[in-house]
Structure formats: C-alpha cells, structure tokens
Amino acid sequence: EDKVVQSPLSLVVHEGDTVTLNCSYEVTNFRSLLWYKQEKKAPTFLFMLTSSGIEKKSGRLSSILDKKELFSILNITATQTGDSAIYLCAVQGGQGAQKLVFGQGTRLTINP
Amino acid sequence: DGGITQSPKYLFRKEGQNVTLSCEQNLNHDAMYWYRQDPGQGLRLIYYSQIVNDFQKGDIAEGYSVSREKKESFPLTVTSAQKNPTAFYLCASTLRWRNTEAFFGQGTRLTVV
Questions:
Q1: Is A50 on the interface with B (CB under 8 A)?
Q2: CA–CA gap between residue B69 and residue A91 (Å, rounded)
Q3: Does the distance separating the beta carbons of B100 and A34 come in below 8 Å?
Q4: Residue B40 has pLDDT above 90, yes or no
Q5: Measured between beta carbons, which residues in chain B are less than 8 angstroms from residue A96?
Q6: Is beta strand B56-57 parallel, antiparallel or unpaired with respect to B43-49?
C-alpha cells in the first residue's frame, strides 16, 4: 500500500525559530515528491523534488529529498507568524505513476 | 486564465440524499483527483483518473462514485452509503507526461444536516 507519513503532526514555536518538517514515504514507481502550504482552502505549491541530494530553496524555505532512505525534509528559518499553516507532503507514483498520495500534514503554529 | 473550478463552494445535504460535486479544469491536464479533508487533517485520496473513461479507487472510496466522460470534467457523487460525509472536498489535476505540481480547486465544503 502506498503511504506517506509526516512528522511531527503538530508543532508550536516562537517567531524567529528554525523548524524542520519530515516526510517519509513508501510508494511504488516513485515519480516526484511535492510540498504544499495550506492556510485556508486550496493548498499552495512550495516545492517539487525528483532527484536526491539537490536542495530546492525559496527565501527562508528549503527542501531536500533522499531517495535511498525514502524521506524529505522541509526547513523554515527565521519563522514568522505568517508561516503558520498546515504543511502537506505528497508523493506521486503508484500504479501508472499517476497516483498522488498525501501525508497527514504538519500543523505549524508560530507564536509572536 | 487556466485553472480548476469546483462548485458549489458550500453544499448542505439531508441524510439519505446523494449529492454531486463538480470539478472542471481547462489546463488540458490528463490526471484528476478527489480528496477529502477533515478538520486539522491531511488529504485523503478518494478516487483518481489518469485518462478519460478510466478511474481508480483511492484509500477511502467507499460511499463515493465518480465518472470521467470528458477530459475536463471529473464529478464526484457522495452517496447515502457514505456514513460521515461532512468534510471539505478538494479536486486536483496534473499532467501525465511531465513532472509538474498538482493544481487545486478552491474546494467544496459539504455539510449533512
């Protein structure tokens, strides 16, 4: 069964802290790993990772994939209250390499 | 502008009724997906379709049905067999032959009254 597991499920930190969110997966026919941020309704896209060891970076956010150990991390440095959201990890693969499976999400709360 | 349109945004249903949620995309994407999200949770896959006239069950397909008669459209029917249908439903789509992110609609919030 294709599976994506995120940890922690919930995280509360103070503004300015650095956080690391984890995503591990067991998916056949791996194609890509995606990170999304969800604040209210539709998730917004952050990163897509397909190759091991290549860091993707956007401002204070960065992410990397390890295809040997089957996990990815999302780092957020110098956190701000606007980073408070649910962060979702998804893996595309499975039968026909088109199945898109999400993890349970990490609810991140940044306190001022 | 290209995108995914879900309708309605809010839907109220009486127990025992079937309801159909609409999802239309003009992105020329091949694959489409339906997810259910409960408060504070991640997205759980209900059904997905890779091409027209073909679809596969996800992890929580019981009590739901779909069709894919056109590339642009992937409606979801929540049947009376779904025991706890109150949830937020999201539709998404991706290209089949290129690695791109999944695009999402704005969601439908279904409430059973």
A1: yes
A2: 26
A3: no
A4: no
A5: 50
A6: antiparallel
> What's A58's DSSP letter?
E
B10-13 and B108-112 strand pairing: parallel
Which pLDDT tens digit goes with each residue over B46-104? 999 999 999 999 999 999 999 999 999 999 999 988 889 999 999 999 987 777 899 99
Q: A2 with A101: CB under 8 angstroms?
A: yes
User: Average per-residue pLDDT in chain A?
Assistant: 94
DSSP A78: S
> For residue B96, which residues of chain A lie inside 8 Å, CB to CB?
98
Q: Using a CB–CB cutoff of 8 Å, tell me whether B95 touches chain A.
A: no
Asked whether the predicted pLDDT for residue B1 surpasses 70, the reply is no
Predicted confidence (pLDDT) per residue in A46-100, tens digit: 999 999 999 999 999 999 999 999 999 999 999 999 999 999 999 998 877 788 9
d(CA B46, CA A49): 24
- B5, closest residue in chain A (CA to CA): A42
Measured between beta carbons, the chain B residues lying within 8 angstroms of A41 are 88, 106-107
- How far apart CA A44 and CA B28 sit, in angstroms, is 20
- Please tell me which residue, A41 or A84, carries the higher pLDDT value: A84
Asked if B45 lies within 8 A of A100 by C-beta distance, the reply is: yes
pLDDT value for A50: 94
Which segments within chain A are labelled E, that is strand?
A: 3-7, 10-14, 19-26, 32-38, 44-49, 56-58, 61-66, 71-76, 85-93, 99-102, 106-111
